[in-house]
Amino acid sequence: MIVWATTFGSTAGSAVSGFASEVGVAFGLPDKTGSYVFAGIMFLLAAAIIEVFLRPDPMHVASELSENGHDGASQEPALPAPSTREAISLIWQRPEARLAVLAMIVSQVTMVGVMALTPLHMDEGGQSQSVIGYMMAFHILGMYLFSPVVGRLTDRIGSYPMLFIAGGLCTWGAYWAAITPPAGALGVFMGNFLVGLGWCFGVVAASNLMVALYPLHQRVSVQGVGDFAMLASGAVAGLSSGALYSVFQYSGVNYANALFGVALILATFLTYTGVRRSMRRPQHQQPAVAVGG
Question: What is the pTM of this model?
Fold first, then answer.
């Protein structure tokens, strides 16, 4: 539901960006910088809403639930949340958690890697700014609009099938964009939509897989580590995209993005089979028999 709510903010931001830029120019700011001023004001408003209305603090609620034994695990009085280093160690010890973090990273890198370069690619083909804007809107819809459906599907069929789908969507979208010429529209529109949808599948399913592995007092810390890894990898992808574009061109970068999706599919398969094998192993062990008795 939180991801779905982002649809409205993203759409509204796209809709008022031109107006905000014009207002900025009227106040003597350089062209397009008014959108950044507007975004800064909205961030301050969001911070004020959270500070005033997010009561009680979710961390306090989680602590009380943990103390009262409502977190699905029997434990003594509420335990402190692990530190960042401890959270990293907790994730590293569980192959399912490592897969969840990898899925977040792949989803973010593929989404950013394709999306950041597509406007340059379309501009090279002489496509108008309005068409590029429509492409970005289509991409955003893929990321956020279907998240309640993705969440329901994750609850119904589990995280592993959804991560397979996420890898497939990221691979398909990046490849479709890669083979589309600069003047083409369908491939870049659908490619960006599919990687956006793959991002949605990957982040929702990976987050679900992550929090299901740990008791309540550990969930915020491990999810925070996963989110940080996801956002940091996306920042690296965004910062490096221009340099990679100048060397490998649009198609080369997106072929590499498609390989990230393939890597997620393989990692999901290996993790799933490994976890299933470890779950079955005690059932297949036979009691030791003394020979020659």
Answer: 0.82
